[in-house]
Amino acid sequence: MLVVQKYGGTSVGDLERIKNVARRIAKYRDEGHDVVVVVSAMAGETDRLLKLAYDLVEEPSPRELDMLVATGEQVSSALLAMALNAMGYPAKALLAFQIPIKTDELFGKARIRDIATKRLKEELAKGQVLIVAGFQGITDEGDITTLGRGGSDTTAVAIAAALGADVCEIFTDVDGVYTADPRIVPKARKIAKISYEEMLELASMGAKVLEIRSVEFAKIYRVPVHVRSSFSYEPGTMVVEEDESMEKVLVSGIAYNRNEARISLYGVPDKPGIASRIFGPIAEAGIVVDMIIQTGRPDGKADMTFTVPKTDYKATLKLVNELAPEIGIEKIEGDEDIAKVSIVGAGMRAHPGVAAKMFQVLADHGINIHMISTSEIKISCVIDEKYTELAVRALHEAFGLDRAPEEETS
Amino acid sequence: MLVVQKYGGTSVGDLERIKNVARRIAKYRDEGHDVVVVVSAMAGETDRLLKLAYDLVEEPSPRELDMLVATGEQVSSALLAMALNAMGYPAKALLAFQIPIKTDELFGKARIRDIATKRLKEELAKGQVLIVAGFQGITDEGDITTLGRGGSDTTAVAIAAALGADVCEIFTDVDGVYTADPRIVPKARKIAKISYEEMLELASMGAKVLEIRSVEFAKIYRVPVHVRSSFSYEPGTMVVEEDESMEKVLVSGIAYNRNEARISLYGVPDKPGIASRIFGPIAEAGIVVDMIIQTGRPDGKADMTFTVPKTDYKATLKLVNELAPEIGIEKIEGDEDIAKVSIVGAGMRAHPGVAAKMFQVLADHGINIHMISTSEIKISCVIDEKYTELAVRALHEAFGLDRAPEEETS
């Protein structure tokens, strides 16, 4: 079996943990598997490097910033390969330029274009364990790029796809994907199997187990991903293609996000092109708008509500206030104290009435809904932030997630 | 003018100092010069990385060790380029693989084979300041190598040679090469100009200002090297080809070395092949022998004395004691408390009697000489360690180094 494994920063956070990871890899070798390992920087290292740069200058040049932070993974991959070699398991650390992992030139958030498999395959055939520095790539000109936060997940999935690996194991400090945040819902359970689509929805809601681009990659190339803990040998959560068993489960998980703020524009002239005149300047300012809702009014005008990251709230308010006179917006209002609560499940497609049930549950607990948005397998409601925990717990119970799924009890 | 500059670890030891170096480089740009800069790792960083490796495993795999420590220069070169860019001076950090700087495959002490100048010249033509990560190279297979301690000096001189630079400036924390160690000889003076050969002899004696291989490189490719302080704008010491003015100076400097130990073998059979039977096993153990002296005895046997680094003293003693019965050595003796004191000067060639004067000076101070070795421009004497300071000061005065040279007073 060809296994691609990824170990996060906490898993290689100190020398003792690096040795633990080496022992874990050795076990796979003893079982006869070929192993390619992708590592993140040791916990805290990327932040230390970023601090160096931003303490030095206000705006570090992007090319050099990537060259700087890429050293974090260079260090951890070299150390892990050393640990394996010392244990008698031949291992080679490989940097992006040595494979190469080609990306575009968007420093700080580069996208992988191509991974050459020749050297990887040759080294594997020689019985080497390959330790690949995650998070980094190389442009056609030979400049070092980084893939953005969580990029090591993407490196791992992309390598698994390129090599046609049997599985891509993402080792992290949690032991899988849960039906809800266990800090909020004590009865939350680990999900044994989840579809790429569901995982995408959960990841986009801020469930930090998997970087969203890595899930997209896995979905496109159909890479089975196993999210599991580096501190135990228990199985975690398999992220795979949707199958029949998944459709039986109405709701797979409850997610929430407290990092957004709401802005409402009242009395917007309801004519063609108005939305782009509002959201064009916001996009140009680099602000990512999440939910957008527009409703007509009897007077021919429209009301428009949308959410932006809390960190961009003030800048967005300033922008729309500047636009207001020109466009003819009557009134602008905003609210930072909101939360988005979502239910996610592949089974929704086949079962009507899930949305109605969600609204009823929230109403039963006296929780007012400010915004609603839906996708095929997700329903999100924006509510007052103070009700977040209550809403998540109530939905978790109402959709039967407090108890083990039928397949497991029968 | 095309200037290659090298800044050592102390010169880029913290962010404030990196900014200082950036300002210094900016000054050269303002004067219209093209500048290629070679940087070492920030002071302490290489040791920190080595400690990580040796805390992890007893014997780190050499390939991965080089990959690990090479990050030190990657960090400092990226930071320095950022500082320059922020000041409005376009700068690019370049790693060995990006140039490339090709070396052999001797990890940890690789030798530079070739430096491609195409990219360097193109970037210089675009008005870029180039910040090259020192100390590192790349093999034909794309593995990262390091050149060994002090390797950044070699990188700088090699790049200066490859580009045909007008001067290679080595910025360090001392302001030049001195006639003797100023900590021992308060009257020691900075030498304005010194020949490659003299510098080689001084460097091999442990004068830490310039790495010896960089001087060899400079000599072969006739690169004018300027050793100077990164904390002032005062001129330092020019290391150049020997010229007439240098021959007038009898002795340029006094050096000493307390890091060696002496081993004497008495009654060694005086027959062909005996030296290789003794020194072969020592070389195989990786021990570098410095001075070797052999003298015949009336009884047809020989006495042999040699010096090794103090750190290898015990291992060498053990080795020769094991060889003794087989070879027929009568007696073995050793002494760790020795020092080597040397006088160096291109003028010696033209002036007989320098050696005699040195022996006389030592005798006048009651200092016994255990070993003598000479080269064209150097005379070294091994004495008891406790006399080191006395010997250096006495020689410094006797050869007229306490006062400024004639050229400067006239």
Search tags:
alpha/beta, Carbamate kinase, homodimer, 410 residues, 8-stranded mixed sheet, 4-stranded antiparallel sheet
Output the radius of gyration of chain A.
23 Å
Classify the fold: give the CATH topology of the domain at 2-173 in chain A: Carbamate kinase
Low-confidence stretches of chain A: none
- Order of adjacent strands in the largest pleated sheet of chain A: 3-6-2-1-9-11-12-10
Put simply, the count of helices of chain A is: 14
CATH class of the domain at 2-173 in chain A: Alpha Beta
> What is the CATH H-level superfamily of the domain at 2-173 in chain A?
Acetylglutamate kinase-like
Oligomer: homodimer
Q: What percent strand of chain A?
A: 25-35%
Protein described:
Chains A, B: It catalyses: L-aspartate + ATP = 4-phospho-L-aspartate + ADP. Chains A, B: Keywords: Amino-acid biosynthesis, ATP-binding, Kinase, Lysine biosynthesis, Nucleotide-binding, Transferase. Chains A, B: ATP binds at residues 6-9, 172-173, 178, 183, 208-209. The structure is a homodimer of 410-residue chains. With 410 residues, chain A is an alpha/beta fold. Chain A has a domain at 2-173: Acetylglutamate kinase-like (Carbamate kinase), CATH 3.40.1160. Helices cover 36% and strands 26% of the residues of chain A. Chain A is built from 14 helices and 20 strands. Chain A has helices spanning 15-30, 45-56, 62-69, 71-86, 118-125, 151-163, 196-204, 212-221, 244-248, 274-284, 313-327, 354-364, 388-398, 406-409, and strands at residues 2-7, 34-39, 91-94, 101-103, 112-115, 129-133, 136-138, 144-146, 167-172, 193-195, 225-229, 237-240, 253-257, 260-269, 292-296, 301-309, 331-335, 338-344, 371-375, 378-384. In chain A, the strands form five sheets. In chain A, strands 3-6-2-1-9-11-12-10 form an eight-stranded mixed β-sheet, sandwiched between helices. The longest helix of chain A is centred in the first third of the chain and has 16 residues, at 15-30. The first copy, chain A, is globular, with a radius of gyration of 23 Å. The mean pLDDT of chain A is 91.
